[in-house]
Amino acid sequence: MDALLTALSWVLGHVVPKDPDLFVFGGRQYGGNTAPLFERCGEVGLRGVWLTKNPAVLRAGRPGVVSSRSLRGLWLGARAGGVVLTHSLGDFAPVRFPSRRTRILNVWHGMPIKRISRADPSFAARKHARANLREMKRYEAMFATSDDMARVFAETFDLPPSRVHRTGQPRTDALFRPSPVALDFDPPLPPHTKRVLYCPTWREGVAVRLFPFADADLDAVQRFLEAHGAVMFVRTHPNDPGKLAKREGRLVPLQGDVVPEITDALPLFDALVTDYSSVYLDFLLLDRPTIFLPYDLAAYARAPGFYWPFERIAPEPWASTQADFLAALGQALTAPETHAAARAGVRRLVYDHVDDGATRRVLEVLVSGPPRSTDRSAR
Length: 379
Prior knowledge:
By secondary structure, the protein is of the alpha/beta class. The chain has 14 helices and twelve strands.
C-alpha cells in the first residue's frame, strides 16, 4: 500500500500548484524544534499541518495533525509551499516532495558536540550517504545558535554560510518558562529537594557504561543521594541497550515513555551528569552545574570525533573515579556557582541569544523566504 501512496504522492508533488502559505511540519516524535513552529505559525500568517504515520502522535488528537498515509495527507503534502523537518524527508513517508518549488528547511534536532553527517569520518560508508547528500542540496535553510555553530553546520551539511541562520533552537524557548512536566511516579519517589539528571550519549554499536568507575559502588551512591536529599534520574538514548533496567531506590529511569521531550524537563534539574551528550549545550542556558564522565574520551575523539577539543567545550569537573564523582556532585548541589565562569565562556561560544525568542526568529525566516506567488486555488 505504501508503494502505491508513494507513487501517487510523487505524481501529485510534481503537478499540483503550491500554496506558499501552507507548511508541512514533522519529526520522528511530536516535539523538538518543529512542534513550537507548528503551534505558532499562524502568528505570522502561515497555515501548518503536522504530517506523520506515528500511531501515538495520531491518537493524541492534536488539531492539524494528519496521517501521511491518508489521501488528505498526500494532497496537503503536494500543496505545501514549504516543509520544516528535524531529521530527513523520509520521516514523512510515504509522502514525497519531489518538486523544487517546495521549500525545504531543516531545523535539526540539537546543536552537535560530536561530528555528524558529512563531518563524521564514517559518513561515506553509510548506506544512505548518497541519498543524504542529494537531500542536503535542497536545504534552503538550516538554523544554528551562534556564529561558531553556524560554521559547524555549513561545514557539516555542505551549505553556503548564508543559508545557516543564527536564530537559536525553538525547543529551548521552553527553558525560560516553568516546566510543563510533572515527575509523578507510582509508587512515589523518596522525599527529596534536589534532582540530578544523568544523561549519557549514544555510542554506535556499543552499550553505554553507567557509573563507569573501577571503584563503582551503587550502595554508596544511594547513601550519598539520601544524605543530600537528592534523586538521580537516568536517561539513555532510546536505542542504547545499556539503560537503567528498573528503579532502584534513588536511581530512577527517565526514558521517553515518561518524558518524551527531555528539553521540556531540564528546568526541573539542579545538576546534569553526562559524557558527550548535546543535552549539555541546552543545559548551559540554565547556568547550572554539569559533571562530565568521559570514560572513553580517547576512542570517542577518534571516531566520531569532536568539532572542538573536548576540554574547550566541557570545562571541569571531570570525574574518572566514583570518589571524584561524588565530590563533584556534592559541590554541584551545595555550591552551584563554583564553575559558573567556565560555563559562561562555553555559553558565549555556543549561543548568540540567551532568551525565549528562537521560535519567533525562525518563523521570521519562514515568511521571508523566496518571492511568493498568489496561487490559492486549491486551499
